[in-house]
Amino acid sequence: MARRIAVVGSINMDLVTQAPRFPQPGETLLGEGFVTVPGGKGANQAVAAARLGAEVALVGALGSDAFGELLRAGLLREGVNLDHVRRLDEVASGTASITVAGGDNQIIVVPAANARVTPAHVESARQVLARADAVLVQMEIPLEAVEATLRLGRSLGVPVILNPAPARPLPAGWLEQARYVTPNQHELATLLGADPAEDFRALMRRAPVPVVLTRGHEGAWYREQGEPAHQPAFEVQAVDSTGAGDTFNAALGVFLHEGLPVAVRKACAAAALAVTRLGAQQGMPRTHELDAFLAG
Ligand code: RIB
Question: How far apart are CA 9 and CA 271, in angstroms?
Answer without folding.
Answer: 19
